[in-house]
Specification:
The protein is α+β, with helices and mostly antiparallel strands. 29% of the residues lie in helices and 24% in strands. The protein has a six-stranded antiparallel β-sheet with strand order 1-2-3-4-5-6, with no helix packed on it.
Length: 138
């Protein structure tokens, strides 16, 4: 841990401020629509969670985890199909014959709610005996 003023501003979590700043810049550059979403209220469709936003790079934040649990909504949109509205990002989850498939923006089937649609993948397939993450977006 460090005693620098910047570290203290981040809750003295022992985070590398330069590393966090670089990660935030990469996030904004990687998602050009991000600033417009932030200007609309700071969320991506679900309810905004300040504790989650502040602890985005920390996997051990009890308050953030609890806030995410409270604010996450699982909405059944069709048989075997759900929209999961998280405070930071939304995902679509489908029950297929191969197991559950969670898809995010950038997956060819995300907008049409069709996990069988060919094209780029940004998904996690959860079969009984294995998980498979695919991210081949260009």
């Amino acid at each position: 841990m460090t005693d620098s003023p910047a570290a203290l501003e981040h809750g003295d979590l022992g985070l590398d401020v330069a590393e966090c700043t670089a990660a935030r810049i990469d996030l904004v550059v990687g998602d050009p629509e991000l600033m417009a979403r932030v200007a609309e209220g700071g969320s991506f469709g679900g309810e905004y969670s300040r504790p989650a936003a502040q602890a985005m790079f920390n996997r051990h934040s009890g308050p953030a985890v609890e806030d995410l649990r409270v604010k996450t909504q699982v909405i059944e949109v069709a048989p075997r199909s759900w929209l999961v509205r998280l405070p930071i990002v939304n995902s679509a989850v489908f029950e297929t014959d191969d197991g559950l498939v969670a898809m995010w923006e950038g997956d060819a089937g995300y907008k049409d709610a069709d996990p069988s649609r060919p094209g780029p993948r940004h998904r996690l397939t959860m079969a009984e005996d294995r998980y498979s993450f695919q991210d081949d977006r260009t």
